């Protein structure tokens, strides 16, 4: 299984970006997908998460500005980021909690995608 993220870039404050992350491989079920971000010298923090029931949760710092959504057919999660602020500058990582099958048994795993840089200029 691989997670491939895209959509990062450079944007001015107040602008928008849309991140995408696709999960490829042999997957039985994806329980949740989400986005985290990390800046130099700081721990990775949760930005937004979406469960299989389409429930969403957000960090307080992005509520009302970011929207997470999923396409369960395409195993894809999106993060629409509006009204971006300089403090949103970070490397953004997607992750997925999913189920795979080996020899007739089901196992749960967590996978991470490569980071995508988001830079917001003031």
Q: Could you characterize the architecture of this molecule?
A:
It is a single chain. Strands 2, 4, 5, 6, 9, 10 and 11 form a seven-stranded mixed beta sheet that branches. This protein has a four-stranded antiparallel beta sheet with strand order 1-3-8-7, with no helix packed on it. It has no helices and eleven strands. The mean pLDDT is 95. It is an all-beta fold and 122 residues long.
Short description:
The protein has no helices and eleven strands.
Q: What secondary-structure arrangement, pairings included, does this model have?
A:
Elements: E1 2-6, E2 9-12, E3 17-24, E4 29-38, E5 45-51, E6 56-58, E7 66-71, E8 76-81, E9 90-102, E10 105-112, E11 116-121
Parallel strand pairs: 2-11
Antiparallel strand pairs: 1-3, 3-8, 4-5, 4-9, 5-6, 7-8, 9-10, 9-11
Report the radius of gyration as a whole number of Å: 15 Å
Compressed to H and E, one letter per element, the order equals EEEEEEEEEEE
Structural class: mainly beta
Query: Quick one: overall form?
Result: elongated
Helix fraction bin:
under 10%
